[in-house]
Each structure stands twice: as C-alpha cells, then as structure tokens.
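Translate sequence into structure tokens.
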Amino acid sequence: MNISNDSPAVNYVDYFTKQFPKDLAQMAALRDELAVRQGALSAAQDAVKDREAAKAELEAAKAEAAAIKADAKTDRTAAAQELTNAKAAAKKLNDDALAVSDDAVAREKAVAIREKQTAAAEAALAKGQQELAQQQAALAAQTTALEARVKAFQDKVAALSA
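Result follows.
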C-alpha cells in the first residue's frame, strides 16, 4: 500500500499537448463506434419488429386463405348440388318428353287403326247399303211381278166367273 503518495505528479502541459489529443481522438472513435453499434442494435430491434409484423400478417393471410378455402369448398359443394339437381331435372324432363313422345306415337297408331277400322266399316256399310238397294230393287221388281200375276190371276178368275 502506498500511503505516502510516492507517485510522480502529473504534468498537465505534457498531458494536454501529447496525450489528450490521442485520448480525445480515441473517445471520438469510441463515440462513432457506439453510434454504429447503437444503429446496429436498433436495426436488429427493427428487424425483430418487422419479423413479428410479418408473422402477424402471415397468420392473418393464412386465416384469410383458410376462410377463402372454406368459402370455396362451400361454393363447390353448393355448385355440385345444383349441378346434380339440374341433371336430375334434365333427366326428368327428357324422360317426360320421351313418355309424351311415346304416348303421341301410341295415340297416332291408335288413331290410324281407328281410321282403318272406320274406313272398313264405311266400306262395309256402303256395300251393305248397295246390297240393300239391290235387294229393295229386286223386291220391288218381285212385288211388281207378283202384283202383275195377281192381277192376271184375278182377271182369269173374273173371266171364268163371268
């Protein structure tokens, strides 16, 4: 322990002329380095903040993408159901049209058969009327002949009786 203060006295003139400019330059360099380091530290803090903001934005984007995906899935399901309904309606419409077409064809065939039957009945009726007319004409001829024979017989009987 140095109690008597044996150390030599500081020569301030030498210090301010020789050592102080060096110390001042070193302090300025340290100040500049500290400013650079402080800038680097704030840049790192800004980078951490940016990462946190980017992470939050990524989470928000993922949530929005999930919502859009869910909406798209719902829309796809609804569209598939509508397509199924439309296909079923089109099939029913086609089946109904085919049934109506088949019914129309069947009716046309039935009408054609009825027309043929009606034509045949008309021909038979016409033939029957012709035969009836011939029979009426024959009956009228026979009636006239009979009346002539009866008159001739009556004339003979009157001639015999007279």
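Note: The chain is about 95% helix and 0% strand.
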